[in-house]
Amino acid sequence: MVIGKVETGITGLDAMLRGGFPEGRMILITGGPGTGKTIFCSQFLHYGATKEGEKAVYVSLDETKNHFVEEMLTFGWDFKKLEQEGRFTFIDASDVRRIPEQAFQARQVGKLPVSGKELARARLIDNIFKTFEGGRSIDRFIGDIGARRIVLDSMSGLTFRFPEAWEKRQAILDIMEALNNIGATCLITSEAISTGEEKQVQPEEYLSQGVINLQTLRTGERAVRILKMRGTEVDSVPRPYKIGETGIEVYSDQSIYQT
Ligand SMILES: Nc1ncnc2c1ncn2[C@@H]1O[C@H](COP(=O)(O)OP(=O)(O)OP(=O)(O)O)[C@@H](O)[C@H]1O
Ligand SMILES: [Mg+2]
Q1: 13: β partners
Q2: d(Cα 62, Cα 68) in Å, to the nearest integer?
Q3: Does any ligand 1 atom lie closer than 6 A to the CB of residue 36?
Q4: Residue 57, Cβ neighbours under 10 Å: how many?
Q5: What H or E segment, with its residue span, contains residue 125?
Q6: pTM for this one?
Q7: pLDDT value at position 99?
Q8: Which ligand sits nearest to residue 60's alpha carbon?
Q9: Residue 5's closest CA among 31, 29, 25, 30?
Q10: Could you read off the pLDDT of 38-73 as tens digits, one per residue?
Q11: Which overall architecture, per CATH, does domain 5-95+149-250 show?
Q12: Ligand 1 binding pocket includes 155 (Cβ within 6 Å)
């Protein structure tokens, strides 16, 4: 079966991906603070909405809508206008960061006694995915919109509550499953800093179908690397990228070791 490709809108990256992201898959964008994860994802959404006429959804766990809209306008991307035209939806799920600690310590859901840990997970997922709007879950809501491109920024904003590995893994699995069922191409950002060489592979990295790492090197140079992309051959050599006035540009014919 030939998997369809979704153009990213990021110059140079589509060449590395041999056409774009595999359609309907879940791709993780990893990188440290300030490496451009939010810009990367916004560029992907903006391109889809303006060039492909696709509906785009941004689920934010970090930034408020006003901040987001303002920041992206500096690249000439007018998300306010796209929203008014019905091509873009911003979902502010940042409240999940402010769930009171007591909610994580209760011992009962309805009449059902559960352990604190199980409840923590249930509450978290409930808060953003089950009781979002008019009783609809976020994934239902996004599905009803008919979105083809979805961004969840960031996974770290969701899972920082779970210090224990099994718990974190389960929360990530729940979220990924809910998003995957929508069938849209989905980007999730994560601050995991694995570069492939390191041993610390995060659960979201092996649970997603693709992983792209953004890195700022000690020299100040920025490098993008495709660590994994199931179902398609890709260029896995680290390539330089820049963040400029029009967003992210990847130099897919250059190597980061070039002078
Ligand atoms: N107009 C611009 N021109 C060039 N570079 C810019 C511009 N605006 C932002 N940047 C660069 O982009 C970086 C921020 O990008 P972005 O917010 O996408 O990073 P991030 O990986 O999402 O960070 P965080 O982990 O903090 O959310 C800044 O550190 C800055 O270097
Ligand atoms: Mg960000």
Answers
A1: none
A2: 10
A3: yes
A4: 23
A5: helix 116-125
A6: 0.89
A7: 56
A8: 2
A9: 25
A10: 999 999 999 999 999 999 999 888 889 999 999 999
A11: 3-Layer(aba) Sandwich (3.40)
A12: no
What the block records as the tokens of 87 is: 């091509």
d(CA 256, CA 42): 25
Q: Which residues of 90-115 are buried (b: 16+ CB within 10 A; e: fewer)?
A: bbebbebeebeeeebeeeeeeeeeee
**C-alpha 222 to ligand 1 mean position (Å):** 12
The residue type of 157 is G
Q: Is 37 in the pocket of ligand 1 (CB under 6 A)?
A: yes
Largest Cα span, the chain: 66
Mean pLDDT by 10 residues, the chain (259 residues): 90 96 96 96 98 94 92 98 96 68 48 49 55 65 89 84 75 82 93 62 83 94 96 94 98 82
Task: Indicate the DSSP class of residue 35.
Answer: S
3-state helix, strand, coil in the chain (%, to 5): 35, 25, 40
pLDDT at 245: 96
C-alpha–C-alpha distance, residues 194 and 213, integer Å: 8
- Provide the pLDDT for residue 43: 98
Q: What is the pLDDT of residue 112?
A: 46
